[in-house]
Amino acid sequence: MSSLKCVNILAQLMLLLMLLKLLTVTSVSALDFAHHTQRDIENILSNWTVQFPHLTHVYSIGKSVRGADLWVIIIGQDASHHHTLNPNVQFVANMHGNEVVGRELVLHLAEHLLLEYGKNESLTGFLNTTHVHIMPTMNPDGYESSVLGSCQGIGGRTNAMGYDLNRNFPDELSQFPEPEQKETHLVKDWLHSTHFVLSANLHGGALVVNYPFDSYPGAKTRRYSASPDDDVFRKLALTYSRSHPTMHFGSFCGDHFKDGITNGAEWYPVYGGMQDYLYKKASGYQVLMEVSCCKYPRAPLLRGFWERHKDALINFMFTVHMGVKGLILAQSEYNDNLFLPIEGATVMVQGRESIQFKSTKYGEYFKLLLPGKYILMVNHSFYKPVEVPFEVQDTAVTRLDVQMFRAYLCESCDENNGKESISQLKSIQRVQLLASIITAVFFTKL
Ligand SMILES: *[C@@H]1O[C@H](CO)[C@@H](O)[C@H](O)[C@H]1NC(C)=O
Ligand SMILES: *[C@@H]1O[C@H](CO)[C@@H](O)[C@H](O)[C@H]1NC(C)=O
Ligand SMILES: *[C@@H]1O[C@H](CO)[C@@H](O)[C@H](O)[C@H]1NC(C)=O
Ligand SMILES: *[C@@H]1O[C@H](CO)[C@@H](O)[C@H](O)[C@H]1NC(C)=O
Ligand SMILES: [Zn+2]
After folding, report:
1. Residue 329 per-residue DSSP state
2. Residue 44 CA: which ligand 1 atom is closest?
3. Per-residue pLDDT tens for 310-334?
4. Is the Cβ atom of 119 under 6 angstroms away from ligand 3?
5. Which residue has a Cα nearest atom 2 of ligand 4?
6. From ligand 1's centre to the CA of 68, what distance in Å?
7. Looking at per-residue confidence, does 305 or 11 come out higher?
8. What is the pLDDT of residues 20-69, one digit of tens each?
């Protein structure tokens, strides 16, 4: 072999190596259209945290019955820290283990958000002020026993103990409550430790958005069960169905739904579902999307599903910034002019009082509302109730902070209880005061 030929081969080899390197680098960010296993999901999420360290934070809320982690990825600027009054959006998929399209949709959504950050102005602005928590599978055990290509089957629907997780949440209207499952318990804790303003629960087997209530007292026959925020839920559902190229036509998979949306109980009543629980007990708005007629379609169809659902998922997520939000501030025991954020105040909108939201541990509240004039009603056992009129525009969320004043004169309540409460309050506020002093000192030092 001549030396010239040798150099030539060497040069070609180096070029090939460079090309290979380029290919592997890009392949990390290009998520393929395939069904991803639990192991794949773990690799994908962990690669994203390496590639996008400031935009991502990955955590597990715990393990399923068979020991698989329920992973969540947060996407947004400074993803590992909460920023007061920046809302969290939640996507939960694959609660029914054999309904797998949502699982891939939310992975592609995550990738899209990561790749568009810094490129697309509106997505960048959104991720600067919002954290998106994505759980690709709530039922990894069910997924393991599901069958590729099975469109209508129920194998893999339940968790490993044979329970339907979307009938397993506490529901005071449920006549036959089932034993609480591990996955349900973990998700419940998650809903109470992280506040989700807006949430999507992705299912399959139909093409429609289903909104609360799923249940109502009494007989299990179909009928419309309106929540006090029916107008808001209809808006959320329509935003999704109208952003999908065909869902709003309403006739798919043998069903017919006007505009591609339905009230839950009007379709069929469900007791113990996640969406009613989140709305009644965890101060947020969840709807359920049925994203494909076929529950477990073959992989070549996945690209089409993503293309059709992409705008719907994004536009739905954008609706988190409507209505009103603010801080509930309570007068300090030590200084009449000092107001501190308070957790657990009851926040209601007049005319919609049957649903009571609680202020978060940061003192925040969020109410999604359509444009109009409203009255906010806030109460707390230690403070005088407050009513404040406000207006919601369609351009931006209204900011409304509320100050609550001490209610020393406890007319109707028991004397002793009143005294105990005040001392409890004082100790809570001592801790808060200390925390704010420490924070202030810390930040000035830095
Ligand atoms: C994750 O990154 C590693 C190293 O860059 C790569 O070999 C692997 O293919 C990536 N995995 C996925 C699922 O993207
Ligand atoms: C940015 O993303 C939004 C939401 O998906 C989309 O409507 C808009 O067209 C995108 N803008 C550009 C310039 O691509
Ligand atoms: C998002 O935040 C980054 C970093 O703070 C900033 O540079 C950028 O201008 C922001 N973009 C938008 C659209 O808000
Ligand atoms: C606030 O008002 C609601 C509705 O009247 C009531 O059910 C709730 O118990 C009150 N909360 C507190 C802490 O007083
Ligand atoms: Zn389902």
Report:
1. E
2. 13
3. 999 999 999 999 999 999 999 998 8
4. no
5. 379
6. 21
7. 305
8. 544 444 444 599 999 999 999 999 999 999 999 999 999 999 999 999 99
CB-CB contact of 186 with 173 (8 Å): no
* Separation of alpha carbons 72 and 42, rounded Å: 10
Please tell me the distance from the alpha carbon of residue 289 to that of residue 210, in angstroms, as a whole number. Answer: 6
The minimum-distance atom of ligand 2 relative to the CA of 123 is 2
One of 290, 343, 364, 420 is an active-site residue; which one? 290
Q: What pTM was estimated for this model as a whole?
A: 0.88
CB of 244 closer than 8 Å to CB of 200: no
pLDDT in tens, 72-93: 999 999 999 999 999 999 999 9
The residue behind tokens 């820290």 is 81
Alpha helices in 327-414, H assignment, sequence order: none
Q: Which amino acid is at 322?
A: M
Ligand at shortest distance from the CA of 50? 1
- C-alpha separations of 197 from 25, 111, 188, 282, 318 in Å: 36, 22, 15, 9, 12
8 A C-beta contact, residue 209 and residue 287: yes
Q: Is 121 noted as a catalytic residue in this protein? A: no
Greatest extent of the chain over all pairs of C-alpha atoms, in Å: 104
